[in-house]
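yo, Metallo-beta-lactamase domain-containing protein is done. seq:
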Amino acid sequence: MTLPSPNDDQAYCTTSALEAGLILLPDEMFIAGAIPGKVTTAPSLSFLLRHSTNNKTFVFDLGIRKDWKNYPPSVVNRINVRVDIVQDASESIVNGGISLEDVDYVCLSHCHWDHTGDTAAFKKSTFLVGGACQALFKPGYPVDPECDFASDLLPEGRTIFFDTANWEPIGPFPRALDFFEDGSLYIIDAPGHLPGHINILARSSPDGGWIYLAGDSAHHWNLITLESTIAQGHPDFPHGCAHADKDAAEAHIHRINELTKIPQVRVLLAHDEPFYTKNKGGPAFWPGKIPTL
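structure:
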């Protein structure tokens, strides 16, 4: 299993983590055999990527919005006191020295509330989402007052809904889009968690380094290492687990596990507690950069 070799003068992307809120995640909700009652304080990470030659700025996920009480009521009622947002993604970007108007693309791994932040703050960005998410907004909140997904979440006229059917394979993944058409950043179809779930595979250096941003493909590293399996039967999940399609989610986790065996590939989860604990407040966060492998 390999990834494409770099070309001469290979374009790549630098990647910076963004503070975008913390969330309490009971381990029993996500991994089978978890320690009873153990709760992980996990980040809801956002990432800022900058292209090495065309200077495009690409943000992946927006974490939790600071004014979380403005989510749809069905979401607010579930959040309760499970979140802590000292600095949201928008503030992290601006505090690092970039105007939100200079963000060219905002790509959402999926449309769950702890990844969508406040999309209204990005008034000029083009939004990128997996096309299958459109079904979540029919009709959406407030037409359906019980819906978790606000009908105005994705800006009309500035959102690209990807059709992944004809994407090409890369490495262990059967469907990927070479977004900038120069081998620098691939959008990966990542089925299982929620309709339209996508990941990012980006070159982190011109000489063979890569970074993989896995979104909610897994909520705990024990799943990626295959030490644990997905928890089932939790009453908080309508599908019985954290994923809408457990079989598809497991298959995708196995593909990420294969990716981790390729040299010079760094994998990060949206709720990557080990990465956050090691790096919070340090140079991996914007305006610093995550080191390439």
